[in-house]
Amino acid sequence: MLIQLVKLARPWHWIKNGFVLAPVPFALAVGAKLDLTVFALGLLGFSLVNSAVYAFNDVRDQAADRHSPTKRSRPVASGAVSSALALALAAILASIGLTLCWLTEVRAAIVLSLIYLSVNLVYSLGAKNLPVLDVFLLASGFLIRVLLGCALVDAAPSNWLLLCSSALALFLAFGKRRADLVAGLTSEHRPSLAGYTVGFLNSALGITAGIAMFAYALY
Length: 219
Known about the structure:
71% helix
């Protein structure tokens, strides 16, 4: 059961929080101070909030996951973990994560974590079924990570950093949808896929990649 709960929390997906680190070298270069304790608390707290979202999503998506050859083995979809236990784990992880963010005494850390939770609730409760909107909501999660990194080192995000991060986040989100189509997933598994074609996604990937590289070069 412990192994199944760890699978439900997906700590290996915390690698996405590398976006939190993105603004740090630039902030330090202009004189910002890095308090390792504050930064570690904020990063760990936000990571636990991520895991709470994954657990909640698995409960919401369990019926669709059973139609996926790769996701049918997830703890809730496979029946290894009950929906009630998964929701309880989500609540516990969210509570601990928000508490750690509060302990940083960085007000923006708790605010951004709450925004992240709210965005993902909207996504899970139906917005993920709407083409394009689902991609923008996914991308917003990466942008929130960048803003969190700025908040934890007490540095204002530059417009170039936000533009570059937003474009890169959209690139990753469009890439995820393209991977779904190429893998043969249909609207039965993810309703929003009915609104995408590989051609459209290729164009979107080219545009967002170009913007990200151009913005980073100027930055």
